[in-house]
C-alpha cells in the first residue's frame, strides 16, 4: 500500500465475501479489475444499508469506491454501485453453489494486489452465464424426458471456469502424455481408452502407471477439454449440458485446482 497519503480508487470489482469486523463494521474481500484482490473495511455496514445496500452480497459486480490509507493493509470502502447483481434472477441451490464456487476459487487462488484482467473477465463471463441456472436440476426441477434432462447452464459454466482457471494459472496438465513414463496417450484415446489421474499426483497416466486411487478420464472428455479451450462459453451454452455430460472432466478440473491450492474447495463438492 502507498505511504504518506490517501489514494482514492474507483473501479470494477467482484465481491468475494464479507464477515463481521469490530462492532458494526464488515471486512470485505474484493477482486478488483485495477488492483486484483483487495481487502477493506465497510464502516457501519451492519447498521446502515445506505452506502452499500445489497452490494455486499458475494458475486455482486460493483463499481467500487475505496481509499488506500498510509501504512495500512486494509483499504477504506467508501461506496459501491451495483453493476450486476446475482439476485436479479431466481437463485436455486445449483446456481448458488456455482456462484459460490467461482468466488471461493478467486478468493483462494488470487494473491493480494495482483491484477489479472483475463481472470476477471473469465469470472464475470461465468457468473452471468449462470443466470440460466433456472434450467437446473435442483428441487422442483422437472426433466424434459425420463431419459435425458436438459440440464443447466451452471454445469458447463462451472466446468468452463475451472478448466480456464487452471490454464490461466499455469496449472493445467498435459493430457496427451503419461506423466510417469512419457507414453503418447493419443493413440490410446483414439481407441476409446481412458487416461488416468490421481488427486495425489500431477498430470495423467497410462493404464500401466496408474495409482491405486486413480480415476478414469474418458477419451471423450479429454476431447471436450480441447474443444472448451477453443470455444467461447456463449457457443457452448447453446448445447445441452446435463450433470452427467463430461462429469469426469469437471471433477478432474476441480481436483487440479484443489491440488495446487492445497485445500479442498468446499463449494466444489457438488460439482465433482
Automatic annotation (TrEMBL):
Name recorded for this polypeptide: DNA repair protein RecO
HAMAP family from the UniProt entry: RecO
Top-rank taxon: Bacteria
Pfam families in the record: RecO_C, RecO_N
Keywords, in A-Z order: DNA damage, DNA recombination, DNA repair
Origin organism lineage: Bacteria, Pseudomonadati, Acidobacteriota, Terriglobia, Terriglobales
Residue intervals of the DNA replication/recombination mediator RecO N-terminal domain: 10-83
Function: Involved in DNA repair and RecF pathway recombination.
Similarity field: Belongs to the RecO family.
Cellular component GO terms, alphabetical: bacterial nucleoid
NCBIfam families: reco
Signal peptide range in chain numbering: none
A GO biological process held by the record: double-strand break repair
